[in-house]
């Protein structure tokens, strides 16, 4: 690829490549392979938003499985419950969702390779069945099995829905629409928290089954993603999908020509070998690191044991009301993130997010450490510190680390490697989530609850320099231009741009 093509493509996507001989930026257009100049036209938002919401309805049902254990666990441990769980059994029910998601993360790649839309539909069937198993569970082993199935579905849904939205959204709207999967997860969590205030664990499972039914039907009317269809050389279907997603009056030629420039998918062996290439392994490693950071910050442990943390801290707020408030704040913060991701960019939000999360966890830990020296009366101002610290922590996660860790796989990794990279990074992510959820009670016993919170806070602070030095800004950049970005970085670092005059100095900058 010539420097001329790379330079003008990057300029269009807000990547500036200049030489010392350049006096002004090149004009913002992109040459097609035949040399014709193509102008970009703005696509319609509504069909892309409709596709994202319909595809991510299954995220809502799966999000309910993440929120189920918080209101259901006290009901399962109540003396009048048909099943009564011990503290150890309750921790296994909470953590088996994560362990099942580990298996689902490994299955995500093969399922996604069949098609993003088909993967969502395949996950909807066992998801609905698992809710029914919970509702009629005769013993704790049935609960174990059902939550493992819920977790396996979660592992597939998390990556399949995120890839579907990332690959169907236009580059200027990918950040905002990329929050829709996380947003729908949070809607499901909030619905489960709210319903759990009035329903016991059996009826709450039936409620989860009810909201899962639309997920069986909605994927049928959705188009497959254009990049997936182009990679499979189904060009007519790709054009039809682009027209569906961008609007019938939108000129899709530029986007279609750019998709054709992306390398087509190779065989399984070639794709595995390709992961060792520097231009591939770098985005895969960055994606894996961000996803693991989002787990080791302790979010799942805090959400699962919110009521226990508030009771231990003797919060001034009723725990049932506090749980609903946390779910609502998580949803609102994700809505705000939809607008901020395309305005401020990924890197800034990640740095601010992890800093806020770390400070809030350290503050909560300090409150718990010095609790015996403080006024613990319900009417005191200090009694509000635990719930406020948790809310700030949730806001920080929902406005940065949560959504960005989701969209990373669809932005950084090239399309031809996403199925394998999804399995690899998904397995690492869900294994981390299982470790965090299962070991929280052990950490609480050995380090006390304040020590566990300080440990999670330290992980948040470690993530700040990593993001600053390692993560490139991808706001408003097309999928193909992101591939060019990593290629340019490798070429420049190796001084391997063959058609560059020896007197030129090339500088790549990413505009925030």
Automatic annotation (TrEMBL):
SUPFAM superfamilies: MFS general substrate transporter
Keywords noted in UniProt: Membrane, Transmembrane, Transmembrane helix
Main localization, broad class: membrane
Database matches in InterPro entries: MFS_dom, MFS_sugar_transport-like, MFS_trans_sf, MFS_Trehalose_Transporter, Sugar_transporter_CS
Domain Major facilitator superfamily (MFS) profile: 51-475
Transmembrane portions of the chain: 49-70, 90-112, 119-137, 143-165, 177-198, 204-222, 292-310, 322-342, 349-370, 382-408, 420-441, 447-471
Pfam families: Sugar_tr
Cellular compartments annotated: Membrane
Membrane topology: Multi-pass membrane protein
Designated name of the protein: Major facilitator superfamily (MFS) profile domain-containing protein
């Amino acid at each position: 690829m010539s420097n001329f093509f790379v330079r003008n493509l990057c300029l269009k996507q807000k990547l500036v490549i200049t030489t010392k001989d350049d006096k002004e930026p090149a004009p913002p257009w992109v040459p097609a392979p035949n040399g014709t100049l193509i102008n970009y036209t703005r696509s319609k938002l509504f069909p892309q938003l409709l596709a994202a919401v319909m595809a991510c309805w299954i995220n809502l049902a799966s999000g309910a499985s993440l929120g189920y254990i918080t209101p259901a666990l006290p009901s399962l441990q109540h003396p009048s419950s048909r099943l009564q769980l011990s503290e150890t059994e309750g921790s296994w029910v909470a953590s088996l969702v994560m362990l099942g998601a580990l298996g689902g993360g490994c299955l995500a790649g093969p399922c996604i390779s069949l098609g993003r839309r088909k993967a969502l539909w395949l996950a909807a069937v066992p998801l609905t069945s698992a809710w029914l198993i919970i509702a009629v569970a005769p013993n704790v082993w049935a609960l174990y099995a059902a939550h493992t199935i819920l977790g396996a579905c979660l592992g597939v849904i998390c990556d399949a829905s995120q890839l579907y939205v990332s690959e169907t959204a236009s580059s200027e709207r990918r950040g905002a629409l990329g929050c829709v999967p996380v947003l729908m997860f949070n809607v499901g969590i909030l619905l489960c928290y709210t319903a759990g205030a009035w329903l016991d664990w059996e009826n709450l499972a039936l409620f989860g089954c009810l909201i899962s039914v639309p997920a069986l039907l909605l994927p049928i009317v959705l188009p497959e993603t254009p990049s997936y269809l182009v990679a499979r050389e189904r060009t007519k279907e790709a054009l039809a999908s682009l027209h569906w997603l961008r609007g019938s009056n939108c000129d899709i030629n530029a986007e279609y020509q750019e998709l054709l420039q992306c390398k087509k998918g190779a065989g399984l062996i070639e794709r595995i070998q390709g992961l060792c290439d520097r231009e591939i392994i770098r985005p895969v490693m960055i994606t894996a690191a961000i996803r693991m950071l989002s787990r080791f910050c302790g979010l799942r442990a805090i959400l699962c044991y919110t009521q226990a943390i508030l009771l231990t801290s003797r919060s001034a707020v009723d725990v049932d009301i506090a749980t609903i408030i946390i779910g609502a704040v998580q949803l609102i913060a994700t809505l705000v993130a939809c607008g901020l991701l395309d305005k401020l960019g990924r890197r800034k939000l990640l740095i601010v997010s992890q800093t806020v999360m770390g400070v809030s966890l350290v503050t909560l830990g300090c409150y718990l450490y010095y609790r015996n020296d403080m006024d613990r009366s319900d009417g005191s101002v200090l009694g509000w510190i635990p719930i406020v610290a948790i809310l700030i922590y949730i806001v920080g996660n929902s406005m940065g680390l949560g959504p960005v860790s989701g969209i990373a796989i669809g932005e950084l990794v090239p399309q031809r490697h996403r199925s394998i990279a999804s399995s690899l990074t998904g397995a690492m992510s869900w294994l981390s989530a299982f470790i965090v959820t299962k070991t929280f009670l052990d950490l609480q016993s050995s380090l006390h609850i304040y020590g566990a919170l300080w440990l999670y806070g330290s992980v948040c602070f470690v993530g700040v320099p990593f993001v600053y030095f390692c993560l490139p800004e991808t706001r408003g950049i097309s999928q193909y231009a992101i591939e060019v970005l990593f290629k340019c970085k490798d070429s420049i670092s190796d001084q391997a741009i063959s058609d560059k005059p020896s007197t030129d100095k090339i500088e790549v900058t990413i505009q925030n």
